[in-house]
Specification:
mainly alpha, two-stranded antiparallel sheet, 12 helices, Wax synthase domain-containing protein, lipid metabolism, transmembrane
Length: 319
């Protein structure tokens, strides 16, 4: 456990130093391809860093914040776009925090707007804004109230990912496809590209956590949903004035599709590496550190809730 903590410190120290480099180099290099090229070694490093970790919690958090969010934000920043771009430029401290954490720099935030939905999140948002002037990006927006797959993925589920994929993938592909396709079909390639990139990134994150050969089930999960969501947009534009499906019908139907495909393609590869057992053991090791003040490895403790139930048992439910 102590060795893993040391690895975590090394990984994040390296990431912070890399972001400091990116902030500094932009004072010397104008936005464009040259700046993007100067960021390329950092992109490679960010994809490597999670491999230094083995903990489910440390690896999952680091790969999501650094490999995914920070890399995609830097891609935008290379062309003076995205949350890292500001005029005047952001101070280095705020630049680094914005790059690797799910936060935004906004001064017109209504901290009460989501308090009824999540009191805990509202309190954390209050603290974040009071200390450094940041707003926490919402992760979910009542996904159970989704009226369609488009509404579920675009406005309600995993909004941090949606917010970063929209400018980095959807808009560029939409701009290109709009030159060759009609308005009705112009968004379809952009939707598909967005879901494919999301699927590949999820596949990569699952690999970091489990270190198992990819099964590509997660990628197919997002390909299927990209196809369905893209066709949904086309059908709405084609038949919107003719056929209207009530939200009380389309909403539950969308949730059924999400749940069915999740149990079919999303959960099995996630549980294949005994992720839930490893997470439980890591938590018990953390409790050992807090309660007794000693470092122990996850393999030195047992999970009281999962002693006789492994991921192979869970996987049988989905097969």
């Amino acid at each position: 456990m102590e060795g893993e903590v040391n690895n975590l410190i090394f990984v994040w120290a390296t990431a912070l130093a890399s972001l400091f480099y990116c902030h500094t180099i932009t004072n010397l290099i104008a936005p464009g391809k040259t700046r993007l090229l100067s960021f390329f070694p950092i992109f490679c490093l960010f994809f490597y860093l999670p491999l230094r970790l083995t903990s489910v919690h440390f690896t999952g958090t680091t790969s999501f914040f650094i490999t995914w969010l920070a890399t995609f934000k830097l891609l935008l920043f290379a062309f003076d776009q995205g949350p890292l771009y500001s005029n005047p430029p952001l101070p280095v401290s705020k630049f680094i925090l914005t790059a690797c954490l799910p936060i935004k720099l906004r001064s017109d935030v209504d901290v009460y707007s989501n308090s009824k939905r999540n009191v805990g999140l509202a309190l954390v948002a209050y603290a974040a804004r009071a200390v450094v002037g940041f707003q926490l990006e919402p992760q979910f927006n009542e996904p159970y109230l989704a009226t369609s797959l488009q509404d579920f993925w675009g406005k309600r589920w995993n909004l941090m990912v949606t917010g970063i994929l929209h400018p980095t993938v959807y808009l560029p592909v939409r701009s290109i496809s709009g030159k060759f396709l009609t308005k009705k079909w112009g968004s379809f390639p952009a939707v598909m590209a967005t879901f494919i990139v999301s699927g590949l990134m999820h596949e990569l994150l699952f690999y970091y956590i489990g270190r198992l050969k990819p099964t590509w089930e997660v990628t197919w999960f997002f390909v299927i949903h990209g196809l369905l969501a893209g066709l949904e947009v086309v059908v709405k534009r084609e038949l919107g004035g003719i056929l209207h499906v009530p939200a009380m019908v389309s909403g539950p139907l969308a949730l059924v599709v999400v749940m069915a495909t999740s149990f079919w393609l999303f959960f099995p590869p996630f549980l294949q590496s005994d992720t839930e057992v490893r997470s439980c053991k890591e938590f018990m090791a953390f409790l050992e550190l807090v309660v007794r003040g000693r470092f122990v490895g996850p393999n030195d403790v047992s999970c009281p809730y999962l002693l006789s139930y492994t991921s192979k048992d869970w996987r049988g439910i989905y097969d």
